[in-house]
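We emphasize that the prediction below concerns an isolated chain of 228 residues; any contacts that depend on oligomerization or on bound cofactors are therefore not represented. The input was used exactly as deposited, without trimming of termini.
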Amino acid sequence: MKKLVCSIIIALPFLTANGQDCKAYIPYEEGTVTEIRNYDKKGKTVGVVTQTVTAVEHKGNNTTFSVHQVYEDPKSKDEIVETDISFKCVDGTFYIDMSGYLDQKQMEAYEGMEVKLLMDEINIPSSYEVGDKLKDGYIRMEITGGPMPMNMTVSIENRKVLAEEKVTTEAGTFDCIKISQDIVTKAFVNMTINSVEWYAEGVGVVRSETHRKGKMVGYSELTKFEKP
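Result of the prediction step, given as a token string:
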């Protein structure tokens, strides 16, 4: 079992209002457990992500949701990566932890190194209309302590509200906001893919699809949603 420890710097604008007024696209209750399965284009499971809400804290104008995440590779049950991430509600806007856009399997390669993350979070406002453009964001990873320093940036660009839809998975049927975006990775090799994500209030990501050059290369679905 491997646990990734990172130092994180977040670029978040100063906002004032009651954070509890916003719609959170993450479970509201501490102890809620969700499971998301990642599939390749043929429908074969390539990863399982289990998230547990460990704390919900209301402080002044902010509400923070702390989540413990466990990534498992079905090919090797001994290879487990654990991380802690957080989400925020501020001034009617829900902010998404950008760490979720890093390949957790790939992060195993940096065990024992110093990993510094700088991020500007993407968000979902409580009030929106279909067709609205949403804020872009990024996460930059600086790695030292290994054979050679490495920098990688993942940018989330061209975000747009496509629709409001019902989505049914093994975990149930959910009312979702459908968002499209481009994911631009800059490292040794640069790559751009398009993704579509369906978020449900009080739940999180219910389904996501990844496309490259117009073809779907993989997708994820919520397969478990258990409240305490």
